[in-house]
From TrEMBL:
Name of the protein in its database record: Protein FAR1-RELATED SEQUENCE
Protein biosynthesis found in the keyword field: no
Residues annotated as domain SWIM-type: 681-717
Superkingdom as given in the UniProt entry: Eukaryota
Amino acid sequence: MESSSSEDEASLRDNDVDLNNENMEQHLTLDVSNHFTDSGILLQSHQEALETIEPFIGMEFESEESAKLFYMAYASRVGFSVRISKSRRSRNDDSIIMRRFVCSKEGFHMKKGNFEDGKKKRKRATIREGCNAMIEVIQKYYGRWVVTKLVKQHNHVVAAPCRVRYIAPEEYAGVEPFVGMEFPSHEAAQTFYYAYASRIGFDVRIRLSRRSTRDETFVMRRFVCTKEGFTPCEENTDENKKKRNRTPTREGCKAMFEVIKKDSERWIVSKLVVDHTHELATAPGKVHYIQSQSEVVVLAKGSSCNREKLTPVNLKPQFVDAFGSFDCLSTNDHEFKTDSRDNCQNAFGFEESQFFLETLKKMQAESPAFFYAFRHDKHNQLTNVFWADAKAKMAYYCFGDAVTLDTSFKENRNMMPFVMFTGVNHHLQTVAFGCALMTDDTEESFVWLFENWLEAMCGRPPVSLITDHHEAMAAAISRVLPDARHQLSRHHVLKKCKERLSRLYCTHASFEMEFLKCIEESETVEEFELHWKSILEKCDLIENSWLQFLYSIRHKWVPLYHKDTFTADLPLGEKPESLDSFFEKYFNRKTSLQVFITILDQAMAVWYEREALEDFASSCTRPILKTPSSMLKQAAEIYTRTIFDVFQDEFVESLGYFVDKIEVGLISKFNVAKDDHLHTWMVTYDSSDKRASCSCCKFERTGILCRHILRVFLNVDVRVLPEHYILKRWTKDAKNGFVLDECARYSDLVCHVIRYAKEGSTSLDVFNVAKQALQMAFAEVLAAKKDISSRCSM
């Protein structure tokens, strides 16, 4: 039978709280002897990798120690400390098969009984607050450790440190501890002793702490060897139960290092024992995360000590100078030019490039619909590569009317140069339309990317294409996709605004609300211009070069200027995750291409699984109607669960609007407003074919009728949705029909054509025969297509 492991829990718990479990200790100790290969990170460079990765269910590790290392590094970055809450052992070989790591504020302290010695006990600070944050990993049959449970939310304030410092123990090689040694803080003393222990060859834990009776701050810390004391023996109270023999981990070692706080705010070594009762290791092989309110110190052998540039801002994507005007623009700039850089600085090595291309070739051999293309530079290094599988093509045929090209890697030099074409499916989940690696970001490279993507997607351009700002990319889009409506990501612009105008956001409490209102709620160009000018004058921003630049490209990102273009811009449902965090999580520049393609494949499998689960749920369940309307009943049968919820919200909201008929006739006009009449929308209705249009253009933008038209429909007694207002891409049958077959047929023919061209180009004589045969075959295809069209029109 499996049981809990108290020894391992106690060992780590001693690193988190003092002997009496009454104070919060923020020291984390991690074994780095294993690899974290399943997230594409080799552990010798784990510090850089773990700075951006966040945990998720299904995440895999090579070992329990690797999982522990990851979660504790994550905790130190977010701003909380960790302890082991629960373990289970196998009844076969007594090995650990489950670990649960929790926030140190998990649970509640047990109340202690009253003492009869007459002594007055002071009230201790409470460090347990019932926090539910945790991660649980279980060893699977194939040896990997998999995250099966995860809670990321805390019920208390967490604060990320303002910086992360990396220190190598070798920096302290010439310093030995001595009584009277002084430190500016107990964290500095802790850093020194752990570095000393790592260099000498033993591990450390915190044995005892004391706090001030005035302000509960630390006044004493005692650090001891992990072999201090003795492992307690468990009494067998039940003779019928067989107890396992635990391996003793304590050997009575006396080595210790105690520091106390003096009135001068200095910490002084008051007690010291340097002799050990056991043999010392040559290298403990552990990483120590020493966290205070201001910083995290990462202490590990081989760490670089010159990485103080790592701050909480750096832990998020940053804009770099290759990102067009967004990146080279400072608040005082008046020139908006794109900085140049070495376009091929990220070119991949020859061996891994060959492996990657062989992998793509193998995928194409296994699936004829798989498409890939690549480019080399003048040094024969792989610079750009694009690929799309059959599922991406099928998804594009169903949901490729609105496409987003995510180039988040451009904001962070530490990320792999990975870009992805994405959209949303009929459940408002993210779907992929193709992926690429782009180390060369010139206009010609983007032209190459869009041409190959368009070829893979059977030559059909999207209605709208949303990207971040990049001058070379914008020029390429105008050349290759002139019919697509190119827009800038509004989220990207607003995020950049917070960075550029951070001081303004803090000093003017109403600025953000007014700014968003101007952008999101302006119904006409005149209204937007008036609001924009008012904000600039109120906040004295008329000369602000950043806002001048945004205004100059307003037609690219302000919704008012493209509200008649379909963008599928609905409130997002349960997306797998934001793409920014998705890219950061997996694709560090240290990630090898071999690991990269494996992780990407696994991540895509999770997306496809979520879509399949939602397909099943939509077909097998019926939503709850908020009102017994025949239109809602119809929508519940047609739309997926997620889209029905959006439609039902619009329908219910429409009941709170008033309608005023201002023109009568075959084509009628209505003013629609709420009771406050602060905003009025114009709805035009053609009774001959039950078509309506609204000044808000929600249907044109999203494919879902707005509350204003729905209110007019109720007024003119339209009780069911007209067929032309049911967009197939939002229905349960979105993936049914000829488009999937057409895509598969196209992909199959492409594979045959490639083989045909390969054989037909072997010599000039063969080429002439192949070309003549191809021309004859093409003429027959056109004749057959014309014949079929004429028969269908009869």
